[in-house]
Design goal:
The chain has two domains: about 5-15 and about 110-235, Rossmann fold, CATH 3.40.50; about 20-105, DNA polymerase, domain 1 (Orthogonal Bundle). Helix content is about 45%, strand content about 15%. It is built from eleven helices and eight strands. The strands form two sheets. A six-stranded parallel beta sheet has the order 5-4-1-6-7-8. It has a two-stranded antiparallel sheet with strand order 2-3. Helix 1 (about 25-35) packs across helix 2 and helix 2 packs across helix 4.
């Protein structure tokens, strides 16, 4: 059946962009530049623990609790280092500021294979395009730095929306920004519940980026699964 799609919305992290190296390695390298020895593995574990706790305590970068996303992240970085044994508060502040800036650039992010070509082709085919991402307000700059921003009419972050996927209200905002009805839109992302299932619950079409051998997740019709982002074109060019 021909999908009468007008708008494509995109997740970003691990759909279009990925981190060049694990967080623990980036943080450890920055610590070394400040004369501090911290094990990358320990930092990675600390980061995951702190990020999880901060996300539960202050969801969506603390937007509903009066925190700025910048402060939210500075706290996460400092806590991750503290948990890994760094006590020097002046060094912690410097590290946190520097890392917050570094993650705003192509220094730490790279475009996934096939992503730029696929976005270009989708635009050539006349699709309107937008981003729907659980991200803070640095995303516009990151997309610009990685030379992807020009593909999109809008970039809707959970921080700006006030709601994070899988909350359907972020998709409703995206549909309003795109000026289309849900059945005229499809969302592309790598997370089953936040991307695939949430977009479908909002009445949109959806495609799940799921690399081969990526563990057996919930059942998804094969025609909705993308082994790579480049596979999208075969699904929508019909």
């Amino acid at each position: 059946a021909m999908l009468r799609l007008r708008l494509l919305t995109w997740d970003v992290k691990d759909t279009l962009l990925r981190l060049r190296q694990p967080v623990g390695q980036s943080y450890a390298a920055e610590a070394r530049a400040h004369g501090l020895q911290v094990q990358p593995e320990a930092l990675g574990r600390s980061f995951r623990e702190v990020y999880g706790a901060q996300s539960r305590r202050f969801p969506n970068y603390g937007r509903g609790q009066g925190l700025s996303s910048r402060q939210w992240w500075l706290d996460v970085v400092k806590q991750s280092f503290r948990l890994s044994g760094v006590q020097d508060e002046a060094a912690l502040t410097k590290l946190a500021e520097k890392l917050y800036r570094d993650y705003c650039s192509s220094h730490n992010w790279e475009v996934l294979p096939g992503a730029a070509e696929t976005l270009s082709r989708c635009r050539q085919l006349g699709f309107r395009m937008g981003v729907v991402s659980n991200f803070d307000n640095r995303l516009e700059v990151i997309l610009s730095q990685c030379d992807l921003r020009h593909h999109f009419e809008f970039v809707l972050t959970s921080e700006a929306a006030g709601f994070a996927k899988p909350d359907g209200r972020i998709f409703e905002q995206a549909l309003r920004l795109g000026g289309v009805r849900p059945e005229q839109a499809a969302h592309i992302g790598d997370d089953y519940s936040r991307d695939y299932r949430a977009a479908r619950a909002a009445g949109m079409h959806s495609f799940l980026l799921r690399a081969a051998g990526q563990g057996e997740g919930p059942e998804v019709p094969p025609e909705h699964v993308l082994p790579t982002v480049s596979h999208l074109l075969a699904r929508i060019e019909k």
